[in-house]
Specification:
The structure is a single chain. The protein has one domain: Rossmann fold (3-Layer(aba) Sandwich), CATH 3.40.50. Helix content is about 30%, strand content about 25%. It has four helices and six strands, in the order ααββαβαβββ. Strands 1, 2, 3, 4, 5 and 6 form a six-stranded mixed sheet that branches. A hairpin with a 2-residue loop joins β4 and β5.
């Protein structure tokens, strides 16, 4: 009886290993270069976020809006980017790339003292800091050690699709705005468009 059990176990083990082995006996997994690889889907991919983030930050820095007159760094608050597409996407992925690129530029520091997901609520929350003793009132102007943001960064991702013959075209618009928190004026706005094409049955879901 024991020999039979061992034999059956051996057969199961061999079958399992055979099922897990890739066709041809060799692995086909490889690293992908996001800069040179072709898109895998008509939906948004990580490399799309990365490309949009880098280009938008480059445009913002080139505009000179973040060049501090005294050689210092501006304090930046970041609102969540609105996803106005048909996809369920993690906008924090895009924000992470944008914040990393801005911090590496040495032009800004990012405040974690003020946080909300809505642009208008963010501006309201910043204004409520007046009189809050935890904040440096000279930056509001105010008191304390926490520094009020000079700018608010907000954005949106839009999706537009259309058909030409048997082809489906999808355009993704990445939009960023830099808003002066004291006046509510938009000091800079940038847009980056990523277009994709596939068969008319392709889905962005």
């Amino acid at each position: 009886m024991r020999k039979k059990l061992i034999l059956v176990g051996g057969v199961v083990s061999v079958s399992f290993l055979t099922a897990c082995a890739p066709p041809g006996g060799s692995q086909s997994v490889k690293y992908v270069n996001p800069e040179t690889s072709k898109p895998h889907t008509i939906a948004l991919e990580y490399k799309d976020f990365q490309r949009a983030a880098v280009k938008l930050v480059q445009k913002m820095l080139k505009s000179g809006v973040l060049n501090h007159p005294h050689g210092g760094r501006y304090v930046l608050a970041v609102a969540t980017i609105i996803n106005d597409t048909t996809q369920r996407i993690d906008v924090d992925q895009l924000l992470s790339d944008i914040k990393s690129a801005l911090l590496e530029s040495g032009k800004v520091v990012i405040s974690s003292a003020v946080s909300t997901t809505d642009q208008e609520k963010m501006l309201q929350e910043i204004r409520k800091l007046r009189g809050n003793q935890e904040f440096n009132q000279r930056t509001l102007p105010g008191k304390g050690q926490l520094i009020a943001p000079d700018y608010l960064l907000s954005g949106k991702i839009l999706e537009r699709s259309y058909y030409v013959g048997d082809k489906k075209y999808v355009e993704y618009y990445f939009i960023l705005k830099l808003i002066d928190t004291k006046t509510g004026l938009i000091f800079w706005e940038g847009k980056e468009v990523i277009g994709k094409m596939a068969g008319d049955t392709a889905s962005t879901w």
